[in-house]
Amino acid sequence: MESKPIVVDNGSYEIKFGPSDLATPYRALNALARDKFGAHYLSNQIKSIKDISSVVVRRPHELGQLTSWELESTIWDYCFFNPDEFGGFELKDTKDQHLIASETCMTIPELSKNMDQVIFEEYEFASLFKSSPAGFVPFGRAPIAISGKGDDMPTSEADSKSYKPFQLVIDSGFNCTWVVPVVKGVPYYKAIKKLDVGGRFLNGLLKETLSFRHYNVMDETILVNNIKEKCLFVSPISYFDSFKHRDDTAVEYVLPDFQTSFLGYVKDPSKPLPEDSQIVKLRDELFSIPETFFHPEIAQLLKPGIIETILESLSMLPEQLRPLMLSNIVCTGGNFNLPHFSTRLATELQRQLPTDWSCTVHSPMGPKELHNWQCMAAFANSPLYSEVRVTRDEYYEHGVDWCTKKRFGYQNWI
User: Fold this and answer.
1) Got the DSSP string for 174-207?
2) Primary place of residence (predicted)?
3) CB distance 9 to 17 below 8 Å
4) Cβ atoms 287, 242 nearer than 8 A
5) How many CA atoms within 13 Å lie on the side-chain side of 76?
6) Residue 398 pLDDT greater than 90, yes or no
């Protein structure tokens, strides 16, 4: 009997991977770090760094494209052949294994070929199917529906499981935010739009803001990323409303002292602080940084925000499809873990639409960054999977150019 395929959501910040029958995937940071003493840490070893100051992080992805397979294959080896780290999971022989992998939207064809060559020629997987994460989303479930008109209600069990032929996927990850209309499981490439605001951008802006107002943290990548994940939120109503109440929502963040804490933490008012603790009191930084999704001009970025990007994408779709897409918006990616992001998006988008159109945003439960992997695992269990994958024999028969142009590339659809 054929083994369950291995599903790899190859994100630029974190790799989610494991057999398709897992409830929750294994997770590994997609990076290599060097501390100030010159020691190197690969993937999840980064979490064991004691002194996080002046840590330099290198990633295989640049500008959203996977450019360094020398580093990426090392991280994949760490994921696939490291049973002590990942609960006994190990690929003893990749020749008999089938792979489902994600790839960035609009990947440059030459870089896409590199991925095929590594998978079939170095790892020698038995078969491969890859797509942008948006292509897998219609197979998944997003049980929370948020209406732009305010009448929120959970979708029924039947609705959440059914395949949606028309969906607008908003995938907001570490590198950027993609707006991808999906028609019958195929991304509509002519209307795909990219917003250059993601987790990396928020980290950089937060570094500058904290360095200007409090302490110099320009070299504290890990610390700033932790502050972003623990403290930031999207203004639930508007930036100006949150600004009026900035003192009510203020947070005191205790910086690491490398004795009681290595990453720092949010201050608990009921507990006393250790002596000589350094505290950063965050007020309007908490919501002004994520507000750049809606108003990039806050960061002197002269580009359209996420609402304008969505409307621009819709304008390139056939007119009959636009209301269908707006009623089936799916939010996925780690940035949607920011509180109120999905609700604010639905509200802001509804204001820009004709009055008889209804905007409904579907938000997955649990960690949003895992939703793409869960959709990929659902696709692996569908009967369609075995029909569309490319086997190693087909790859060697037709060549890498055929793989990219005829099966996995976007050229045929434009």
Assistant:
1) SS-EEEEEEETTEE-GGG-EEES-SHHHHHHHHH
2) cytoplasm
3) yes
4) yes
5) 22
6) no
Residue in the structure block whose two tokens are 């994520």: 290
* C-alpha to C-alpha distance for 252 and 267, rounded to whole angstroms: 6
Q: Which helix (H) or strand (E) holds 16?
A: strand 14-19
pLDDT at 209 exceeding the cut of 50: yes
Burial class (CB in 10 A: 0-12, 13-18, 19+), 119: buried
Strands 56-58 and 127-131: unpaired
Looking at this protein, which amino acid is placed at residue 87? G
pTM: 0.90
Q: What are the residues whose beta carbons fall under 8 Å from the beta carbon of 130, sequence distance 6 or more?
A: 100, 101, 102, 103, 115, 408
Percent of the chain with pLDDT over 90: 44
Q: Which pair of structure tokens corresponds to residue 405? A: 């142009």
Query: What residues contact residue 300 under an 8 Å CB cut-off, 6+ apart?
Result: none
